[in-house]
Amino acid sequence: MNYNHIHLKEAEHGRTVMELTVVKESLNPYGIAHGGVLYTMGDCAAGLAARSDGRRYVTLSSSFNFLRSGQLGDTIQATGTIRHRGRTTCVAEVDITDSQGRLLASGSYTFFCVENR
Question: Fewer CB under 10 Å: which end of the chain, C or N?
Fold first, then answer.
């Protein structure tokens, strides 16, 4: 998160919001936000939402769709929301939007709980 300039903006049980301002290091060779930055941001938002129950998780699988490009200087947000929480797995969905509220990417992440109570 620190390397990619991603910061936690909001956190509550089952939901988190991450934020980043697209900087030069966030860009791909085409001058737009690198897909890896958006994916990482989504993974962080979903992972923190999963961990909001106090347990530890690792990413088991994901599906991610890129819809628009993030631009230099834009502030983007990733909102992670829990859709299902089981005994050993947790599913979270993520929407990533730009400062104008346009959807840049969306994804679904499945996590495996590595710590049962």
Answer: C
Judge whether 39 and 64 are in contact, CB under 8 Å.
Answer: yes
Q: What pLDDT does residue 16 have?
A: 98
Contact in structure between 4 and 40 (CB atoms under 8 Å):
yes
Q: What's the pLDDT tens digit per position in 83-114? A: 999 999 999 999 999 999 999 999 999 999 99
12 is written with which tokens? 């509550």
Buried b (16+ CB within 10 A) or exposed e, 31-43: ebbbeebbbbbbb
- Cα separation, 17 vs 76, in Å, equals 10
Under DSSP, is residue 45 helix (H, G, I), strand (E, B) or coil? helix
Q: Is the dihedral of CA 22, 25, 29, 31 positive or negative?
A: positive
Compute the distance between CA of residue 101 and CA of residue 48 in angstroms, rounded to an integer: 22
